[in-house]
TrEMBL record, chain A:
Family statement: Belongs to the GMC oxidoreductase family.
Swiss-Prot/TrEMBL keywords: FAD, Flavoprotein, Oxidoreductase
Cofactor requirements of the protein: FAD
Region Disordered, residue ranges: 1-22
Protein name: GMC oxidoreductase
Pfam families, A to Z: GMC_oxred_C (PF05199), GMC_oxred_N (PF00732), Lycopene_cycl (PF05834)
GO molecular function, one term: oxidoreductase activity, acting on CH-OH group of donors
Organism of this sequence: Natronococcus jeotgali DSM 18795
Top-level taxon: Archaea
TrEMBL record, chain B:
The name this protein goes by in its record: Gluconate 2-dehydrogenase subunit 3 family protein
One matching Pfam family: Gluconate_2-dh3
InterPro entries: Gluconate_2DH_su3
């Protein structure tokens, strides 16, 4: 925190003169310090391997969390500013049929996008791994739910998930969640009456958020600003695993964006990174794990093209960057003639996965969410109006208090015309072509959004709400889950990595990211990312 | 509704400043250097005077609330300096339009000054125009302190507003509780 600027302004990354020289004799070089990279690094460091993590963004000071919360509340700051987003470093293009707001969908720094995330974590359903055979669309994963099941349980322990066994639609599990679920909210109770009438079952939400003090981290204390910042640390973020990795002897270098991967025909030899003083350095290692998220991972591979691999590294299938997917958001909300008690906490306590497994070739899987923060937050309204005093209070009372809202995530299928590519027209602060997220969504997803809207309307009407907003097929947006761009498969002609998460082309390169998802399902991806990261770590360890 | 010292400490805690106030070390006016060389008295008087405009008439206890809150905020030298600058500009306008410092004008005249400066319609911006800075440092500073505190939230029916660590019970309570 800088005392030279006002509190909200004063939050700034830790800017120490750090040694950013390459680590000698590294066994493993992990690129990216989000949850995927953090989990791989902590696992391998705890197995006594020499691990170095290269992270493009800075290290944030935990003491600044409240100042960042002030940024989250005050209208002077946009979302990317909460975590010091830098428009030049993070430049991007969006040339698809739908705009993709990439810098609202990620954070660069030690902790990665989990610094900003919401933190709901659920397992994919069994059919999500067999989309082609079970639903007749998309493609099958080369692994099944059963293969990932022990890794899911381990991931729930690692992230510290609060959950309950009350979801009749969830896939089978072997042990309870590490912590009890958060109890339903007051508004969940209102929804429950309506859903009962309609025969729709509600259940708890597994949250990567402490319902109790755990492992030295605080229990949730109700700040209500989870997205984009949890000041108490009750919400999991990947700094937990980066710290664990460092405690086990790993080296984390911040502000060292990897520019390209130097390689021979079959192996990566070094990751070339830039340092803040403008130098370039080479980190050599026996194994490389790319964990840069679903957009920067394919970008780094494409930037690493060579005469041997003119279309980019690990890209003999031609599929690096292809099949970009996100989850489509569908939502409906309104007002009741009574208080609904919104905006006390910033997370969800109830969902319904009832319709999820009815998916087929025409209707996509989707899950329904019941909001605890629909409608405006009074403090936000107060800071952005044209009034004050009694007029302001009157407006706050009129605008806050009786909102109800529902969201939903809908699967989109992998499509060749939805992709991440390099934009040759535009470069970032280091002169590298920026990522162009060319996002398009097919009819199955859009028709499902429409069906979701109908269900949401039925529930809200049963509740007696007057509907005031809806996000439907025309204006659906992304849920900030970047998937599909280095897909996993058995056939090297049809995929980038194998079921062991190792690239088909390069024997010492693994990818830990939702970029390996062949299809997306409709569950938030990070628990699956974490499970796959643990699986990748096992494979790296065995291979060394 | 009565604003208390506890509210001010809660508001400060939410904003990550104010070790002194949060620890109950009241040192108002005792150590001229502690406030980073700014005229803390003038800032306090002006902010208390502005609160009479921007806070609803239902709240009482404003002076102690604002002073306690400011104790913490003034510990940040940069914030104190920028706040002082905004307050000085407000006083300048008050002097030239109404012939006196902002704090000694009638509440109605203070409101006119704030409106004529344009602080009502301006978007807050710490580096912006005079209107935008007065909105950031004077008006919104006060509104943030109030509406991120439990009593401020309660005025609207939300005893655990965003920014306040109000625990895990309130979200489950019904309106009648
Ligand atoms: C607002 C929001 C809400 C979300 N809510 C949820 C939710 O409720 N549940 C859920 O499951 N998911 C949620 N997500 C998604 C979740 O944050 C991501 O799935 C998760 O963080 C991905 O982890 P990762 O490690 O693969 O990538 P990231 O967390 O994005 O980390 C990647 C890291 O790699 C670094 N990097 C990139 N390129 C390079 C390079 N060339 N060299 C070095 N480092 C590099 C980046 O700086 C970054 O720190 C949300 C996301 C957002 C933005
Ligand atoms: S409500 Fe959200 S921001 Fe507040 S403590 Fe709980 S998890 Fe953190």
């Amino acid at each position: 925190m800088s005392a030279d600027r006002p509190p909200a302004e004063g939050a700034e990354p830790i800017d120490e003169e750090r040694d950013r020289t390459p680590v000698a004799d590294a066994d493993v070089c992990v690129i990216g310090a989000g949850p995927a990279g953090g989990l791989v690094a902590s696992r391998l460091a705890e197995a006594d391997l020499e691990v170095v993590i290269l992270e493009a963004g800075p290290r944030f000071d935990p003491a600044d969390r409240l100042a960042r919360q002030e940024r989250a509340i005050r209208p002077a700051y946009d979302r990317p500013a909460v975590w010091d987003g830098d428009p030049e470093r993070d430049a991007h293009a969006s040339s698809g049929e739908r705009f993709y707001p990439l810098n609202h969908a990620r954070v660069k720094g030690v902790g990665g996008s989990t610094l900003h995330w919401q933190g709901m974590v659920m397992r994919l359903h069994e059919d999500d791994f067999d989309s082609a055979s079970a639903r007749g669309v998309g493609t099958d994963w080369p692994i099944d739910y059963e293969d990932l099941r022990p890794y899911y349980a381990a991931a729930e322990r690692e992230l510290g998930v609060s959950g309950a066994d009350d979801n009749p639609f969830a896939p089978p599990r072997e042990e309870p969640h590490p912590m009890p679920a958060f109890r339903p909210s007051y508004s969940d109770g209102l929804f429950a009456e309506a859903c009962d009438e309609l025969g729709i079952a509600m259940h708890s939400v597994p949250n990567a958020r402490n319902s109790e003090t755990d492992d030295g981290r605080s229990a949730c204390v109700g700040y209500g600003t989870c997205q984009p910042v949890c000041p108490s640390g009750a919400k999991y973020d990947a700094t937990v695993h980066l710290e664990r990795a460092e405690a086990a002897g790993a080296t984390v270098l911040d502000r060292v964006p990897v520019q390209r991967l130097e390689h021979g025909a079959e192996r990566i030899e070094a990751a070339v990174y830039a340092t803040p003083d403008g130098e370039e350095r080479r980190q050599e290692a026996d194994a490389f794990v790319i964990a840069c998220g679903g957009v920067e991972t394919p970008r780094l591979l494409l930037l690493s093209e060579s005469s041997r691999y003119p279309d980019g590294l690990a890209n003999s299938s031609g599929l690096v960057g292809k099949f970009f997917m996100d989850h489509c958001f569908a939502g409906t909300g309104g007002v009741l003639d009574k208080p609904t008690r919104q905006n006390h906490v910033g997370f969800l306590t109830s969902e319904s996965h009832q319709f999820y497994d009815e998916a087929d070739d025409e209707i996509a899987p989707f899950k329904l969410e019941f909001f605890n923060y629909d409608g405006p937050s009074p403090v936000g309204l107060a800071l952005s109006g044209d009034d004050w005093g009694d007029d302001l209070l009157e407006r706050l009372r009129a605008e806050y208090g009786n909102h109800v809202g529902m969201g939903a995530l809908v699967e989109q299928l992998p499509r060749e015309d939805s992709y991440v590519a390099l934009d040759p027209e535009q470069t970032d602060d280091r002169g590298n072509p920026v990522p162009d997220v060319h996002w398009s969504v097919g009819d199955r997803a859009l028709e499902t959004v429409e069906r979701v809207n109908e269900i949401q309307e039925r529930i809200l009407e049963e509740l007696g709400a007057e509907i005031t907003w809806q996000v439907g097929p025309e204006d659906t947006g992304p849920a900030y889950h970047h998937m599909g761009t280095t897909r996993m498969g058995d056939d090297p002609a049809e995929s980038v990595v194998g079921p062991d998460l190792r690239t088909h082309d390069l024997e010492n390169c693994w990818i830990a990211s939702s970029s390996v998802f062949p299809t997306g399902g409709a569950m938030n991806p990070t628990l699956t990312i974490a499970a796959l990261a643990l699986k990748a770590a096992d494979d790296v360890r065995e291979s060394l | 509704m009565e604003l208390t010292r506890r509210d001010a400490v809660a508001a400060l805690a939410a904003l990550g400043v104010g070790g002194g106030a949060a620890l109950g070390v009241g040192r108002l006016g005792r150590d001229p250097d502690a406030d980073g060389g700014v005229d803390a008295e003038r800032i306090r008087e002006t902010q208390v005077a502005a609160a009479a405009v921007v806070y609803p008439s239902e709240v009482s206890g404003t002076r102690e609330f604002v002073e306690t809150f400011l104790e913490g905020r003034l510990e940040q030298p940069a914030h104190a300096a920028a706040l002082e600058e905004a307050v000085a500009e407000l006083d300048d306008r008050a002097e030239s339009w109404y012939g006196d410092a902002f704090a000694v004008l009638s509440v109605a005249d203070r409101e006119r000054v704030l409106e004529q400066v344009g602080a009502d319609t301006a978007d807050e911006d710490p580096d912006g125009t005079t209107a935008e800075r007065i909105r950031y440092y004077v008006v919104n500073e006060l509104l943030l302190a109030l509406y991120a505190s439990p009593t401020g939230g309660e005025l609207v029916g939300l005893e655990n507003p965003q920014g306040h660590a109000g625990g895990l019970e309130t979200y489950r309570r019904g309106p009648e509780a």
